[in-house]
Protein backbone atom coordinates (compact mmCIF):
# COMPACT_ATOMS: atom_id res chain seq x y z
CA UNK A 1 0.00 0.00 0.00
CA UNK A 2 1.41 3.41 -1.04
CA UNK A 3 0.55 6.97 0.03
CA UNK A 4 -0.21 9.69 -2.55
CA UNK A 5 3.49 10.60 -2.89
CA UNK A 6 4.39 6.94 -3.45
CA UNK A 7 5.76 6.25 0.01
CA UNK A 8 4.95 2.90 1.63
CA UNK A 9 2.20 3.73 4.13
CA UNK A 10 4.31 2.61 7.13
CA UNK A 11 6.93 5.25 6.22
CA UNK A 12 4.31 7.99 6.53
CA UNK A 13 3.76 7.05 10.18
CA UNK A 14 7.51 6.64 10.87
CA UNK A 15 9.42 8.98 13.19
CA UNK A 16 12.83 7.72 12.08
CA UNK A 17 15.47 10.45 12.28
CA UNK A 18 13.33 12.66 14.54
CA UNK A 19 14.17 13.87 18.04
CA UNK A 20 11.21 14.12 20.42
CA UNK A 21 11.19 15.92 23.77
CA UNK A 22 8.50 14.54 26.10
CA UNK A 23 7.99 16.25 29.45
CA UNK A 24 6.94 13.98 32.30
CA UNK A 25 8.09 11.02 30.19
CA UNK A 26 9.28 8.83 33.06
CA UNK A 27 5.86 7.54 34.10
CA UNK A 28 2.23 7.11 33.04
CA UNK A 29 1.06 8.52 29.73
CA UNK A 30 4.39 10.27 29.04
CA UNK A 31 6.32 7.01 29.32
CA UNK A 32 4.04 5.29 26.82
CA UNK A 33 4.26 8.23 24.44
CA UNK A 34 8.06 7.85 24.62
CA UNK A 35 7.82 4.07 24.20
CA UNK A 36 5.57 4.34 21.13
CA UNK A 37 7.78 7.06 19.61
CA UNK A 38 10.90 4.91 20.08
CA UNK A 39 9.07 2.04 18.37
CA UNK A 40 8.24 4.43 15.52
CA UNK A 41 11.96 5.16 15.12
CA UNK A 42 12.43 8.39 17.10
CA UNK A 43 15.19 9.33 19.49
CA UNK A 44 13.50 10.58 22.66
CA UNK A 45 14.39 12.86 25.54
CA UNK A 46 12.23 12.50 28.63
CA UNK A 47 12.11 14.87 31.59
CA UNK A 48 10.71 14.95 35.10
CA UNK A 49 11.53 16.22 38.59
CA UNK A 50 12.60 12.83 40.02
CA UNK A 51 15.65 11.06 38.64
CA UNK A 52 14.78 7.50 39.68
CA UNK A 53 11.71 7.00 37.42
CA UNK A 54 13.58 8.60 34.54
CA UNK A 55 16.53 6.25 34.96
CA UNK A 56 14.23 3.22 35.12
CA UNK A 57 12.35 4.45 32.05
CA UNK A 58 15.56 4.85 30.05
CA UNK A 59 16.54 1.27 30.82
CA UNK A 60 13.25 0.07 29.36
CA UNK A 61 13.31 2.45 26.38
CA UNK A 62 16.81 1.52 25.18
CA UNK A 63 19.75 3.36 23.75
CA UNK A 64 17.82 5.92 21.70
CA UNK A 65 16.35 7.39 24.90
CA UNK A 66 17.90 10.11 27.07
CA UNK A 67 16.75 11.95 30.16
CA UNK A 68 17.18 15.34 31.80
CA UNK A 69 16.04 16.05 35.35
CA UNK A 70 13.99 19.22 35.00
CA UNK A 71 11.09 20.93 36.75
CA UNK A 72 8.97 22.59 34.05
CA UNK A 73 7.47 24.98 36.59
CA UNK A 74 10.86 26.73 36.82
CA UNK A 75 10.22 28.71 33.68
CA UNK A 76 13.55 30.54 33.58
CA UNK A 77 15.43 27.22 33.13
CA UNK A 78 13.45 26.01 30.10
CA UNK A 79 15.32 27.86 27.37
CA UNK A 80 18.63 26.50 28.73
CA UNK A 81 17.15 22.96 28.74
CA UNK A 82 16.22 23.24 25.06
CA UNK A 83 19.64 24.72 24.23
CA UNK A 84 21.40 21.89 26.07
CA UNK A 85 19.37 19.20 24.28
CA UNK A 86 19.97 20.77 20.88
CA UNK A 87 23.70 21.22 21.54
CA UNK A 88 24.35 17.76 22.95
CA UNK A 89 21.92 15.70 20.84
CA UNK A 90 20.17 17.26 17.82
CA UNK A 91 17.50 19.80 16.90
CA UNK A 92 14.15 19.04 18.54
CA UNK A 93 11.62 18.01 15.87
CA UNK A 94 8.76 17.07 18.20
CA UNK A 95 7.72 18.59 21.52
CA UNK A 96 5.14 16.79 23.66
CA UNK A 97 3.93 18.92 26.58
CA UNK A 98 2.77 16.03 28.75
CA UNK A 99 3.90 16.87 32.32
CA UNK A 100 0.90 17.81 34.43
CA UNK A 101 -0.47 17.81 37.94
CA UNK A 102 -4.00 17.69 39.31
CA UNK A 103 -5.71 18.84 42.47
CA UNK A 104 -9.04 17.34 43.48
CA UNK A 105 -10.81 19.72 45.86
CA UNK A 106 -14.11 21.61 46.03
CA UNK A 107 -13.63 25.04 44.41
CA UNK A 108 -14.45 26.95 47.61
CA UNK A 109 -11.57 25.25 49.42
CA UNK A 110 -8.90 25.87 46.78
CA UNK A 111 -6.32 28.44 47.93
CA UNK A 112 -4.66 31.03 45.66
CA UNK A 113 -1.36 29.21 46.12
CA UNK A 114 -2.88 25.87 45.04
CA UNK A 115 -4.60 27.43 42.03
CA UNK A 116 -1.37 29.14 40.93
CA UNK A 117 0.68 25.97 41.38
CA UNK A 118 -1.55 24.05 38.95
CA UNK A 119 -1.59 26.91 36.44
CA UNK A 120 2.20 27.30 36.69
CA UNK A 121 2.88 23.64 35.76
CA UNK A 122 -0.01 22.91 33.40
CA UNK A 123 -0.28 26.22 31.54
CA UNK A 124 2.57 28.72 32.12
CA UNK A 125 5.23 26.04 31.66
CA UNK A 126 3.54 24.71 28.53
CA UNK A 127 3.71 28.18 26.99
CA UNK A 128 7.31 28.86 28.08
CA UNK A 129 8.65 25.53 26.79
CA UNK A 130 6.62 25.75 23.58
CA UNK A 131 8.01 29.24 22.95
CA UNK A 132 11.58 28.05 23.59
CA UNK A 133 11.17 25.20 21.08
CA UNK A 134 9.16 27.18 18.53
CA UNK A 135 11.80 29.95 18.43
CA UNK A 136 14.11 27.30 17.01
CA UNK A 137 11.54 25.36 14.93
CA UNK A 138 10.12 28.40 13.11
CA UNK A 139 13.43 29.45 11.44
CA UNK A 140 14.03 25.78 10.55
CA UNK A 141 10.52 25.68 9.03
CA UNK A 142 9.82 22.31 10.61
CA UNK A 143 8.30 21.00 13.82
CA UNK A 144 5.38 19.40 15.60
CA UNK A 145 4.12 20.52 19.00
CA UNK A 146 1.63 18.40 20.91
CA UNK A 147 -0.21 19.27 24.11
CA UNK A 148 -1.69 16.63 26.39
CA UNK A 149 -4.90 18.36 27.38
CA UNK A 150 -7.93 16.71 29.03
CA UNK A 151 -11.64 16.28 28.60
CA UNK A 152 -11.77 18.40 31.80
CA UNK A 153 -11.23 21.34 29.42
CA UNK A 154 -14.67 20.68 27.92
CA UNK A 155 -16.88 19.28 30.69
CA UNK A 156 -17.81 20.47 34.15
CA UNK A 157 -16.10 17.76 36.18
CA UNK A 158 -16.53 18.57 39.89
CA UNK A 159 -13.56 19.46 42.11
CA UNK A 160 -10.96 20.13 39.43
CA UNK A 161 -11.39 23.88 38.98
CA UNK A 162 -7.69 24.80 38.61
CA UNK A 163 -6.93 21.75 36.47
CA UNK A 164 -9.89 22.48 34.15
CA UNK A 165 -8.85 26.14 33.87
CA UNK A 166 -5.29 25.12 32.97
CA UNK A 167 -6.37 22.60 30.33
CA UNK A 168 -8.93 25.02 28.81
CA UNK A 169 -6.08 27.53 28.57
CA UNK A 170 -3.97 24.97 26.74
CA UNK A 171 -6.80 24.28 24.28
CA UNK A 172 -7.09 28.00 23.52
CA UNK A 173 -3.32 28.29 23.11
CA UNK A 174 -3.27 25.45 20.56
CA UNK A 175 -5.50 27.35 18.14
CA UNK A 176 -3.61 30.65 18.37
CA UNK A 177 -0.18 29.02 18.06
CA UNK A 178 -1.34 26.78 15.20
CA UNK A 179 -2.52 29.86 13.35
CA UNK A 180 0.70 31.84 13.99
CA UNK A 181 3.07 28.96 13.20
CA UNK A 182 1.25 27.44 10.20
CA UNK A 183 3.02 29.66 7.63
CA UNK A 184 6.32 28.35 9.05
CA UNK A 185 5.40 24.66 8.71
CA UNK A 186 5.22 24.14 12.48
CA UNK A 187 2.07 22.27 13.54
CA UNK A 188 0.41 22.53 16.95
CA UNK A 189 -2.21 20.03 18.15
CA UNK A 190 -3.68 18.58 21.33
CA UNK A 191 -4.83 15.20 22.52
CA UNK A 192 -7.68 15.31 25.04
CA UNK A 193 -7.55 12.01 26.95
CA UNK A 194 -10.55 10.63 28.80
CA UNK A 195 -10.05 8.29 31.77
CA UNK A 196 -6.64 6.63 31.31
CA UNK A 197 -5.27 4.11 33.85
CA UNK A 198 -2.30 5.90 35.50
CA UNK A 199 -1.16 7.02 38.96
CA UNK A 200 -2.86 10.38 38.37
CA UNK A 201 -6.25 8.86 37.54
CA UNK A 202 -5.95 6.38 40.45
CA UNK A 203 -5.36 9.31 42.81
CA UNK A 204 -8.22 11.28 41.24
CA UNK A 205 -10.59 8.35 41.85
CA UNK A 206 -9.24 8.22 45.42
CA UNK A 207 -9.78 4.44 45.58
CA UNK A 208 -13.54 5.15 45.66
CA UNK A 209 -15.39 2.35 43.75
CA UNK A 210 -18.51 4.56 43.34
CA UNK A 211 -16.51 7.25 41.60
CA UNK A 212 -14.92 4.61 39.36
CA UNK A 213 -18.36 3.19 38.51
CA UNK A 214 -19.69 6.68 37.68
CA UNK A 215 -16.71 7.36 35.41
CA UNK A 216 -17.23 3.99 33.72
CA UNK A 217 -20.95 4.74 33.13
CA UNK A 218 -19.91 7.99 31.41
CA UNK A 219 -17.59 6.05 29.06
CA UNK A 220 -19.56 4.54 26.15
CA UNK A 221 -16.85 1.98 25.34
CA UNK A 222 -17.25 0.61 28.88
CA UNK A 223 -13.61 0.56 29.91
CA UNK A 224 -10.82 3.01 30.72
CA UNK A 225 -8.02 3.74 28.28
CA UNK A 226 -4.43 2.58 28.51
CA UNK A 227 -1.45 4.97 28.31
CA UNK A 228 -0.44 3.53 24.94
CA UNK A 229 -3.83 4.59 23.51
CA UNK A 230 -2.45 8.11 23.93
CA UNK A 231 0.98 6.98 22.69
CA UNK A 232 -0.47 5.74 19.39
CA UNK A 233 -2.36 9.00 18.82
CA UNK A 234 0.78 10.98 19.69
CA UNK A 235 2.83 9.10 17.08
CA UNK A 236 0.15 9.74 14.46
CA UNK A 237 -0.17 13.48 15.20
CA UNK A 238 3.63 13.93 15.27
CA UNK A 239 4.22 12.05 12.01
CA UNK A 240 3.89 13.00 8.36
CA UNK A 241 0.59 11.12 8.36
CA UNK A 242 -0.82 14.21 10.11
CA UNK A 243 1.05 16.77 7.98
CA UNK A 244 -2.22 18.60 7.09
CA UNK A 245 -3.55 18.61 10.68
CA UNK A 246 -2.93 21.64 12.88
CA UNK A 247 -4.97 23.44 15.54
CA UNK A 248 -6.86 20.23 16.30
CA UNK A 249 -7.74 18.62 19.61
CA UNK A 250 -8.22 14.88 19.28
CA UNK A 251 -10.35 13.21 21.95
CA UNK A 252 -8.96 9.78 22.94
CA UNK A 253 -11.60 8.93 25.47
CA UNK A 254 -13.63 5.80 24.70
CA UNK A 255 -16.50 8.02 23.60
CA UNK A 256 -16.82 10.41 26.57
CA UNK A 257 -16.98 13.31 24.12
CA UNK A 258 -20.02 11.90 22.31
CA UNK A 259 -22.08 13.48 25.09
CA UNK A 260 -24.67 12.21 27.53
P1 LIG B 1 1.26 10.90 36.10
O1 LIG B 1 1.07 11.60 37.42
O2 LIG B 1 1.31 9.44 36.04
O3 LIG B 1 2.56 11.51 35.37
C1 LIG B 1 2.84 12.87 35.36
C2 LIG B 1 4.28 13.03 34.94
O4 LIG B 1 4.59 14.43 34.91
C3 LIG B 1 5.25 12.38 35.91
O5 LIG B 1 6.26 11.70 35.19
C4 LIG B 1 5.85 13.56 36.68
O6 LIG B 1 7.19 13.26 37.05
C5 LIG B 1 5.78 14.66 35.63
N1 LIG B 1 5.70 16.00 36.22
C6 LIG B 1 4.78 16.48 37.08
N2 LIG B 1 5.09 17.75 37.42
C7 LIG B 1 6.23 18.07 36.75
C8 LIG B 1 7.05 19.21 36.69
N3 LIG B 1 6.78 20.31 37.40
N4 LIG B 1 8.13 19.19 35.88
C9 LIG B 1 8.44 18.09 35.15
N5 LIG B 1 7.72 16.97 35.19
C10 LIG B 1 6.61 16.95 35.98
O7 LIG B 1 0.08 11.48 35.19
P2 LIG B 1 -0.54 10.96 33.81
O8 LIG B 1 0.44 10.15 33.07
O9 LIG B 1 -1.88 10.42 34.10
O10 LIG B 1 -0.75 12.36 33.09
C11 LIG B 1 0.04 12.84 32.01
C12 LIG B 1 -0.71 13.97 31.33
O11 LIG B 1 -1.97 13.49 30.86
C13 LIG B 1 -1.02 15.14 32.26
O12 LIG B 1 -0.85 16.37 31.57
C14 LIG B 1 -2.49 14.94 32.60
O13 LIG B 1 -3.14 16.14 32.92
C15 LIG B 1 -3.01 14.33 31.31
N6 LIG B 1 -4.25 13.58 31.45
C16 LIG B 1 -4.31 12.40 32.16
C17 LIG B 1 -5.50 11.70 32.26
C18 LIG B 1 -5.62 10.40 32.99
O14 LIG B 1 -6.75 9.85 33.07
N7 LIG B 1 -4.56 9.81 33.50
C19 LIG B 1 -6.74 12.21 31.66
C20 LIG B 1 -6.57 13.45 30.97
C21 LIG B 1 -5.37 14.09 30.86
P3 LIG B 1 7.84 13.87 38.40
O15 LIG B 1 6.82 13.70 39.48
O16 LIG B 1 9.09 13.07 38.62
O17 LIG B 1 8.13 15.29 38.08
Can you characterise this structure?
The chain is α/β, with parallel strands linked by helices. It is built from nine helices and seven strands. It has helices spanning 9-12, 28-39, 51-61, 78-88, 112-140, 161-181, 199-205, 209-217, 227-238, and strands at 19-23, 43-48, 65-69, 94-97, 143-148, 186-193, 249-252. Helix 2 packs across helix 9 (227-238) and helix 5 (112-140) runs parallel beside helix 6. The chain is globular. NADPH dihydro-nicotinamide-adenine-dinucleotide phosphate binds next to helix 2, strand 2 and helix 7. Belongs to the short-chain dehydrogenases/reductases (SDR) family. Residues 18-194 form the Ketoreductase domain. Its EC number is 1.1.1.47.
Adjacency order of strands in the biggest sheet? 3-2-1-4-5-6-7
Gross morphology: globular
Look up the CATH topology: Rossmann fold
CATH C-level: Alpha Beta
Helix vs. strand class: alpha/beta
Assembly type: single chain
What is the element string, with H for helices and E for strands?
HEHEHEHEHEHEHHHE
Main β-sheet: number of strands, strand sense, barrel status?
Answer: 7 strands, parallel
Termini Cα gap: 39 Å
The amount of beta strand, in percent, is 5-15%
The number of helical runs is 9
How many β-strand stretches? 7
Overall mean pLDDT score? 96
Overall number of domains:
1
CATH superfamily: NAD(P)-binding Rossmann-like Domain
Give every kind of bound small molecule, once each: NADPH dihydro-nicotinamide-adenine-dinucleotide phosphate
Radius of gyration, in Å, reads 18 Å
Pfam family, one: adh_short_C2
Keywords: Oxidoreductase
InterPro entries: KR_dom, NAD(P)-bd_dom_sf, Sc_DH/Rdtase_CS, SDR_fam
GO molecular function: glucose 1-dehydrogenase [NAD(P)+] activity
